[in-house]
């Protein structure tokens, strides 16, 4: 049989290569194979959890106290609405669903905001103002994907995942860190916000409100000013409100949740996008369901983005979530949540302060305490050292430097190395166990 001149002769006419040559060829091949992928690293709480696993932690381990967890307790609570334990899947739920979400659920979410925040407003939200996604990160990813060439402002400390998400969009987004002051619990006052827009030529401002990790909440007239300034200066707001129901006043439960939706004049022209979900305020983190509330034309664009990014949210989960937005259900759960978490906030604040840890004076939201450990004995006055020592006592916390985010830049000397984020998300008995171990840890170094 005749062979092709440009194949077999070349393959067999050369002498066999030495083992060293073959090894070098294999090494070159391996390097080329690896180089097509970017090296990925765990962020924030994910890194913390991975380190804890190395010490024997696993979710549900009763021997551990996870004071670093980013989710609230998910079981039955006194006065709350019964937890959903099962739901039916309709035949149509086995098909693809709408990219922006199930129409009935979009209507329910719009009505939820109108009832809580817009009773006296002429402009009301409709389903056209709601886009549903499988989780807050995905909702934000869709938003970032439809932004043009913009200068996006943010401040620190802030939610660590923002950094990774923005890093994927550096070709069109220029992240700008706006300076903030510790005396204001690292919040930016509305007067400073107006100046920052001009000084840093901002097109967009992204912030969590209530803030993860500081527990500071912008509300009332201050939040109203934010919305007005954004509209007047043509700077869009992306407001991450996933902790919107965790609001306290003078260490007692607040009367109601907080949302920028209360201060928007025209839902289809004011440049405000609100992101929220079932993860925190409804205590269903495993359902991975979130939404974006905003002007109709932006919501349409988010649907287009969904077609290329994720294909739209799960139909069965959306249908099951409909019952969560019944007014009686929402109000019972929201009020009971604040009663429970306000009590747990008092427990953790009293314990930490008794141990010489400086806690924010305006921790009026979320289920986190942003704590200054600089007055603790060495080495506990360093967040990484505190984290490592706490693991030895089977307690998890989150080092503060993880919240010093700077998309597109390498952090040589990260801030907040003398801060720690404590979570009072766990159930009360587990929280108390963790705090007792923290007390014992601090005493062991005195």
Biggest β-sheet description? 7 strands, mixed
CATH superfamily membership of the largest domain: Type I PLP-dependent aspartate aminotransferase-like (Major domain)
**What is the radius of gyration computed over CA atoms, rounded to a whole number of angstroms?**
25 Å
Q: Which consecutive residue ranges, at least 5 long each, have pLDDT under 50? A: 1-17
User: Using DSSP, what is the number of strands?
Assistant: 15
**Mean pLDDT across every amino acid position:** 92
CATH topology of the largest domain: Aspartate Aminotransferase, domain 2
Quick one: overall form? Answer: globular
How does the helix and strand content classify structurally?
Answer: alpha/beta
Can you walk me through this structure?
- With 446 residues, this protein is α/β, with parallel strands linked by helices.
- It folds into two domains: 44-78 and 332-444, Aspartate Aminotransferase, domain 1, CATH 3.90.1150.10; 91-330, Aspartate Aminotransferase, domain 2 (3-Layer(aba) Sandwich).
- The protein is built from 13 helices and 15 strands.
- It has a seven-stranded mixed beta sheet, sandwiched between helices.
- Helix 5 (136-146) packs parallel to helix 6.
- The longest helix has 28 residues, at 327-354.
- The model is unreliable at 1-17 (pLDDT under 50).
Summary, kept brief:
This protein has 446 residues and is an alpha/beta fold.
Structure characteristics:
Aspartate Aminotransferase, domain 1; seven-stranded mixed sheet; globular; disordered N terminus; four-stranded antiparallel sheet; 2 domains; Aspartate Aminotransferase, domain 2; 15 strands; 446 residues
């Amino acid at each position: 049989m005749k062979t092709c001149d440009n194949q077999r002769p070349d393959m067999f006419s050369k002498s066999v290569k030495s083992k060293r040559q073959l090894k070098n060829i294999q090494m070159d091949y391996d390097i080329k194979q690896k180089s097509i992928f970017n090296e990925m690293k765990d962020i924030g709480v994910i890194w913390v959890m991975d380190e804890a696993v190395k010490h024997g932690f696993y979710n549900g381990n009763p021997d551990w106290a996870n004071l670093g967890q980013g989710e609230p307790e998910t079981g039955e609570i006194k006065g709350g609405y019964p937890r959903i334990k099962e739901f039916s899947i309709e035949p149509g739920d086995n098909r693809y669903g709408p990219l922006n979400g199930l129409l009935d659920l979009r209507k329910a979410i719009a009505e939820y905001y109108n009832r809580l925040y817009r009773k006296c407003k002429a402009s009301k939200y409709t389903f056209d103002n709601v886009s549903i996604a499988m989780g807050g990160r995905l909702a934000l990813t869709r938003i970032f994907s439809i932004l043009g060439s913009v200068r996006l402002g943010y401040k620190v400390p802030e939610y660590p995942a923002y950094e990774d998400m923005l890093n994927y969009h550096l070709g069109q987004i220029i992240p700008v860190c706006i300076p903030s002051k510790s005396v204001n619990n690292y919040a930016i006052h509305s007067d400073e916000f107006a100046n920052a827009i001009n000084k840093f030529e901002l097109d967009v401002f992204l912030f969590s409100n209530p803030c993860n990790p500081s527990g500071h909440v912008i509300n009332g007239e201050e939040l109203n000013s934010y919305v007005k300034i954004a509209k007047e200066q043509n700077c869009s707001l992306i407001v991450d409100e996933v902790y919107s129901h965790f609001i306290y006043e003078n260490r007692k439960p607040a009367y109601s949740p907080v949302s920028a939706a209360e201060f928007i004049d025209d839902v289809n022209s004011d440049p405000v996008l609100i992101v929220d979900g079932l993860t925190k305020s409804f205590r269903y983190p495993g359902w991975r369901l979130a939404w974006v509330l905003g002007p109709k034309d932006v919501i349409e664009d988010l649907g287009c983005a969904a077609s290329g990014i994720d294909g739209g949210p799960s139909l069965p989960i959306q249908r099951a979530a409909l019952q969560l937005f019944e007014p009686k259900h929402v109000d019972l759960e929201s009020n009971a949540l604040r009663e429970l978490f306000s009590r747990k906030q008092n427990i953790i604040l009293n314990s930490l302060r008794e141990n010489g840890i400086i806690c924010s004076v305006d921790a009026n939201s979320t289920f986190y305490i942003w704590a200054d450990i600089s007055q603790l004995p060495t080495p506990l006055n360093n967040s990484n050292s505190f984290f490592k020592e706490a693991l030895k006592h089977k307690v998890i916390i989150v080092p503060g430097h993880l919240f010093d985010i700077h998309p597109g830049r390498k952090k040589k000397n990260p801030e907040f190395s003398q801060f720690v984020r404590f979570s009072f998300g766990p159930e009360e008995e587990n929280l108390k166990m963790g705090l007792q171990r923290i007390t014992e840890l601090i005493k062991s170094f005195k």
